[in-house]
Amino acid sequence: MAYTVSKLKDYSASAMEKSVADCIRACAIEAASVHNDAELKIFRDRWMARKNGILTQINDLWLKGAPKDAKREAGIRVNELKARIQKIIEGAKVSRADSASAAAERVDISLPGIRRPIGAEHPVVKTTNEMVRVFQKLGYSVAEGPVVETDYYNFESLNFPPNHPARDTQDTLFIAGQQSKPQRERLLLRTHTSPVQIRTMEKRRPPLRIVIPGVVHRNDPPDASHSPMFHQIEGLAVDTNITFGDLKGTLDHAMKEFFGSSVKTSFRPSFFPFTEPSAEMYVSCFICGGSGRRGNDPCRPCKQTGWIEILGCGMVDPNVFEFVKDNGYDPRNVSGFAFGMGADRIALLKYGVDDLQLFFNGDVRFLRQFS
Ligand code: PHE
Question: How far is the CA of 40 from the centre of ligand 1 (A)?
């Protein structure tokens, strides 16, 4: 039978002692049968609730009804009783350690830990890292620069004539509200990683060998082979007596390291304002082996030519060195070569992906294939 509070008829010491003892015993028994949080709450409320909890009832029934001469004694006993009951109720929390729900919560330290998946390296990042590594092995160090760049570093110091088409709003994403600044200070999203050539030459004296990975932007609508945001890997080597032979030897070696020792390289004349002479470098198609065919089918990645365009390169234009002449780059004393390639395009070819957008729309099902 559940414990209920009844009026005290007898306020003698022994009768009060017995009532107190009965109450404590009842509370202790109930405390021992609390098994979970819900039961604990019910138990607590039953005893402690201000409104009509057992302790409140004891207050009302035992104290208020006490005859004058027993009031003091009854008050002391009820206070002691409350303290005991409170202890039991607090203890009930602790005794839950034995309950079923506590057993469920208990930590089994012999179980394996919770594995947090760390995700996979994005194919473009992976390609970039692999390419950077090839050049690091040749003694190149990594240099980086800001994505929001000034007109000076993106164009002027790279020998872009004022009306060169690459400055055109067709290609370049300009930051708004720059009109009040002189042209060279106006901000834009860099259209290539080449500004880091100048930035690094301002800081470090020759000889210099750097590889520059980074994000670039151009005002191209997204499609299967274009994105307004993409990635480049740039390189720059400056020293005394660097020749076009060094350029060819370095890039040929790097492509064999990256794509496999059987690829061949081919250099064809091209134009960049900051290199002279300039070239486009092709590698023999590593998909069809240079034949232009895959069995009876035409090889699509190389458009049946057997060659794939990989990068732009050339000897650093003396006009570029003029901008950093005071830091040891007098074009009469030093020469150098530079190159720049699109990391996304290389990743597309390498992994046989046919839509560039897949790299950027964050579909885990696509990315998971590279883990
Ligand atoms: N910056 C050039 C581009 O984005 C590539 C390049 C880099 C060409 C270095 C020559 C030398 O197209």
Answer: 72
* Residue 26, token pair as written in the block: 């009842």
314 Cβ below 6 A of ligand 1: yes
Which pTM was predicted? 0.70
**Nearest CA-CA partner of 291 in 281, 279, 306, 278:** 306
Return the closest-CA partner of residue 230 out of 134, 359, 130: 359
Per residue, the 3-state secondary structure of 230-257, as one string, reads EEEEEEEEEECCCCHHHHHHHHHHHHHH
CB 305 within 8 A of CB 340: no
Element (H, E) at 27: helix 13-32
Looking from the CA of residue 194, the nearest atom of ligand 1 is 1
Between CA 217 and CA 204 the distance in angstroms is 26
Strands 208-217, 335-342: pairing is unpaired
Cβ–Cβ under 8 Å, residues 284 and 252: no
Asked if 334 contacts 292 with a C-beta cutoff of 8 angstroms, the reply is no
234 lines ligand 1 (CB under 6 A): yes
Indicate the pairing of strand 307-316 with strand 335-342: antiparallel
Q: Does the beta carbon of 192 lie inside 6 Å of ligand 1? A: yes
For the sheet with 307-316, list strands across it: 141-142, 208-217, 229-239, 335-342, 307-316, 275-284, 265-272
Using alpha carbons, select from 306, 190, 312 the residue that is nearest to residue 247.
Answer: 312
**Residue 285, class by beta-carbon neighbours within 10 Å (0-12 exposed, 13-18 middle, 19+ buried)?**
buried
Q: Cα(first)–Cα(last) distance of the chain, in Å?
A: 65
For ligand 1, is residue 123 a contact (CB within 6 Å)? Answer: no
> Per-residue pLDDT tens for 227-258?
999 999 999 999 999 999 999 999 999 999 99
What pLDDT, in 10s, does the model give residues 268-322?
Answer: 999 999 999 999 999 999 889 899 999 899 998 899 999 999 999 999 999 999 9
